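Q:
Just now I want nothing more than another pair of eyes on a protein record. Here is the record:
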Amino acid sequence: MIDHISVGVIDLDRSAKFYEATLSALGLARLVTRPRTVGFGKAYPEFWINLREGMPRVLPESGVHICLRAKTISEVDAFHAAAVAAGGASDGAPGIRPHDRVRYYAAFVTDPDGNRIEAVTFPSE
C-alpha cells in the first residue's frame, strides 16, 4: 500500500551517515544522493531523508513514528545497536511486545532530529 516514506532532517550529511549505518542492518543501502535529499532502499528508494533547514527537533509528543519490517530478530537487534552507535537514542530496547492480536519483536530509536523509527519482525515462536 505504501510506496515510500520520507522524514525531514536538519543536517543532511549527519543524517545520511546515521541512516546508512542504521538501515544497512535491514538490508537497505543509499541508492540516491541529491543536493537536498537522500534515498535508501533495496531495489529502489523506499525511505527518503529530506533537508529541512530551520526545522525544529521533532517533539516526542508528536506521536509520529515509522516502522520498518525486519526479517529476523537479529536484524532488529542490529538495527537498534547500529542506531545507538551512530548517534541515535534508544526509545525502546529490542524485545517481545505482547499484543492482543499478534506477538511481535521490535525496537524503537530516535534519529538525531527526533524522528522515531521502529524495526519489527514477527517470530513464529
